[in-house]
Amino acid sequence: MSPPSRPLRYPLARRPASALLDEVEFARRCGLHPELVRRFWALGLIPAARHLDGSLWFSPAQVPAVARFQRLHATLPLNYAALGLVCDLLDRIADLETALRVRGRTEPVRRRIPQEPANRPERSQLWT
According to the lineage, what is the superkingdom (predicted)? Predict the structure, then answer.
């Protein structure tokens, strides 16, 4: 079988010039004020790329993360600064649960060994 005489061409979807969103568009997609989006960035909750003119550009993949912050802020009596820690802990718990499911609990879970307190008077040599 001989190769085709000319390369095949397939119609592709037009890719936007920039895959990042500016502050205003990102805030619109999140349903927030741009100042709150800048506060999330300042707290380190969402990453952003800085343009030469100083403007912030966000990935569209961060929209669900912002929705998660909004849900947690509405249901827990926490400020936005504490939400970063809460999200990190929730992600860590999810990773550990996934590891347990993957492991299938075939390996024994490490048991805690009870430790004796170090300052018990009847066991200490220095007790007088």
Answer: Bacteria
CA distance 55 to 34: 12
Angle between helices 63-75 and 23-30 (to 10 degrees): 50
pLDDT digits (tens, 9 = 90+) for 52-109: 888 999 999 999 999 999 999 999 999 988 999 999 999 999 999 888 888 776 555 5
Calpha distance 128→125 (Å, rounded): 8
Q: For residue 47, what are its two tokens?
A: 């990453």
Q: How many CB atoms lie within 10 A of CB 100?
A: 12
* Secondary structure (3-state) at 49: strand
How many angstroms separate the CA atoms of 66 and 40, rounded?
Answer: 8
Catalogue all structural domains in the chain, each as residue range(s) with its CATH number: 21-103 (1.10.1660.10)
Residues near 39 by beta carbon (within 8 Å), at least 6 away in sequence: 80
Confidence at residue 19, expressed as pLDDT on a 0 to 100 scale: 87
